[in-house]
Amino acid sequence: MEIRLALAGNPNTGKTTLFNALTGSTQHVGNWPGVTVEKKDGRLKSDKSVIIEDLPGIYSLSPYTAEEIVSRNYIIHDKPDAILNIVDATNLERNLYLSTQLIEVGIPVVIALNMMDVIRKNGDQIHTKKLGDMLGCEVVEISALKGDGIQDAVKKAVAVAKSKKEVVLKQKFSEEIEKVIQEISEIITGKADSRSLRWYAVKLLERDEEIQQDLQLNASELAKIEKLVTACEEIAEDDSESIITGERYAWIASVTEKCVHKKDISGMTASDKIDRIVTHRIFALPLFAVIMFLVYFISISTVGTMATDWVNDVLFGEIVPTYLGGALENLGLADWLYGLIMDGIVGGVGAVLGFLPQMLVLFICLAILEDCGYMARIAFVLDRIFRKFGLSGKSFIPMLVSTGCGVPGIMASRTIESDNDRRMTIMTTTFIPCGAKLPIIALIAGAFFPEQAWIAPSAYFLGIACVIASGIILKKTKLFAGDPAPFVIELPAYHLPGAGNVFRTMLDRGFAFIKKATSIVLVSTVLIWFLQSFNLHLEMVDAEESMLAGIGKMIAPIFAPLGFGDWKAAVASLTGLIAKENLVGTFGVLYGFEEVAEDGEELWATLGAAYTPVAAYAMMAFNLLCVPCFAAVGALRREMMSGKMTWFAVGYQCALAYIVSLMIYQFGTLLTTGAFGIGTVFAIACLLFVIYLLFIKKAWSPEKKTGLSLERA
Ligand code: GDP
Predict the structure, then answer these.
(1) pLDDT for 219-275, tens place per residue?
(2) Ligand 1 pocket check for 34: Cβ under 6 Å
(3) Would the pLDDT of 206 be above 70?
(4) How far is the CA of 35 from the centre of ligand 1 (A)?
(5) 63 Cα to the center of ligand 1, angstroms
(6) Given this model, what pLDDT does residue 707 score?
(7) Domain at 175-261: CATH architecture
């Protein structure tokens, strides 16, 4: 017989860590809410008949957010055999708010009290047995990170699932409320699952419209309930939802008071002390800038570069061309086939794979920052700043996810309730350089600015600056007006990053990169090689006479004001739309590995000679900010749920990339060479326009109805 266990809990309590440990799955563990937006299932490693459903993290069973709806629908409609409720022991009061509601549903619950390692380290004590007795369910101490107690927790959950023993929450509301709950229960008896009667009654007392519809209550029943609710609201002089919330928290406080003994209530934990600096009003941001600088510096300019230089210059620059080239020559292959393999595949895919070491180092650094708890603090810190510009810290979470890949980044925007804020976040989140854009940054930094460490980190800060500027500008438009959504984030205690989590994140992203390099990028580079080797009559020609040059020359003038108006850069930017790594792959094909290797020059030296550094930086900025790859545009379309908005987003991204890149090239050239021309005039006009948009007073008051209203399914 199969047993279905639902894994439910607040965001950031270690659900994914526990799920991975129990099922052997490799879901991404993130140290911020919103990592699990959809439910996922897996089978228990030690007993395949047990299915574990990992539900999105939620704070309550109210239908306010997408996560709450997914989780609650699963629990009340699909009725798992038992709920394994993961609770962050370091944040007990907040977490028990959900636990009381889960127990109320009537499905057997076992509480897995997580982060016990932190509790022990702090010298605090939790009387688990007493807690369980007071709540009315079993409580097991675990540390998902260390794997302690997790088998015991599952065993107990399976046992309660099998026993089908009814659970009853021991909490009682005040007398009047209990009376109303009783009366509502009588009205709905027979309409709702008898186990969950009390839970339904409480929800109806809270005027939960979805539940009213779910139970198909008729007008007279609804009227009776409304009368009861209004009467008790009049007595308590408060709305029913607040009464219930207030009483729940009061009861929880009385429970934790009896069960939790903090070692030193007045003393600050190590985490608190670190937070005093890390989230400090003044130091927080400079510290973040320094940390991100170091991350990019380590991964792109130092450690990662050594490995990448070897892969690029020695492996794909010398070893592969010498041996593979020699072997192919011995085979006496036709010229075109030799060219396809050496210039197309080795040149293109090799160029992209060459950046793998830098990427892995970057991902390790980011995973460490995320896992130890630092990134959650940054979301909190940025919320303070974002809020001034009408954005919410919630918008930063998708951006953090986007440092890996824009597709899940765009999807993570689902945690933002306000339609306007969500759409704006979807539009701007891909300005943050994702993994696929890293080779572009590394290429430009390495080939044009070998001595300047600030180039790579500047790409990240340019992304953030564009997000903030876009936020300020877009918030003033009718389409995005509105106050920022409130932002609540758990700040879990700092801990040493789990090697497993960090490694898994790095491997996941590394493999995804290799997979892309050997599929999409491979096909694209072969196509590029073909187009640059043949003319329209399918005769092998020099690249300058090829079909590709023809196409490139048509679009190149568009990029001339940005400093890279030659056909090669134009084509490379175009192929970047399929996958951003393609830009590097295309350069690999067009500038050829083989010739470079033969004369022993630095791999990218030929590229370095083709553009000025300012033009190269402008090209990088354009490709980082412009429309993301097709996959991300697909995700954008799905999440926008509107073709019109998708076009608007794509148009905005193109325009922004063009303007930023134009200003970089024109002002950069003016400063470095003193050249002043019509392009400079345009750049000045753009700058004035941007300043005007940034500082103009709000054009639309938030109260006005927005033109486009999107309902989430
Ligand atoms: P989810 O959002 O509930 O899925 O939580 P995650 O599994 O993503 O974990 C959130 C953070 O808490 C991660 O940084 C984990 O490494 C950390 N974490 C999870 N379990 C434990 C634990 O038992 N002890 C400690 N110290 N940290 C944990």
Answers:
(1) 999 999 999 999 988 888 888 888 898 899 899 999 999 999 887 656 677 788 888
(2) no
(3) yes
(4) 11
(5) 25
(6) 37
(7) Orthogonal Bundle (1.10)
C-alpha of residue 168 to centroid of ligand 1, in Å: 29
Non-local (6+) Cβ contacts of 654 within 8 A are: 626, 627
Reduced to 3 states (helix: H, G, I; strand: E, B; else coil), residue 24 is coil
| Domains 3-163 and 175-261 fall in the same CATH topology | no
CATH architecture group of domain 3-163: 3-Layer(aba) Sandwich (3.40)
Dist. CA 13 → ligand 1 center (Å): 6
Q: Which residue ranges make up each domain of the chain?
A: 3-163, 175-261, 286-695
Q: What is the pLDDT of residues 168-177, one digit of tens each?
A: 888 899 988 9
Ligand 1 centroid vs 114 CA: distance in angstroms? Answer: 9
In sequence order, which residues have a C-beta less than 8 Å from that of residue 279 and are 6 or more positions away?
377, 380, 381
Please give the number of the atom of ligand 1 that sits closest to the Cα of 114.
Answer: 23
Nearest CA to ligand 1 atom 25: 115
Max CA separation in the chain (angstroms):
95
Higher pLDDT, 396 or 66: 396
- Per-position DSSP letters for 244-257, written without gaps between them: HHHHHHHHHHHHHH
Who's near 300: CB < 8 A, 6+ residues apart?
358, 362, 438, 441, 442, 445, 446, 456
More confident residue, 122 or 128: 128
The residue contributing the CA closest to ligand 1 atom 17 is 14
In this model, does residue 468 exceed pLDDT 80?
yes
Q: Is the CB of 115 under 6 A from ligand 1?
A: yes
Q: Is the CB of 56 under 6 A from ligand 1?
A: no
Q: Are 656 and 628 in contact (CB under 8 A)?
A: no
- Give the number of the atom of ligand 1 that is nearest the alpha carbon of residue 498: 16
Q: Percent of the chain beyond pLDDT 90? A: 39
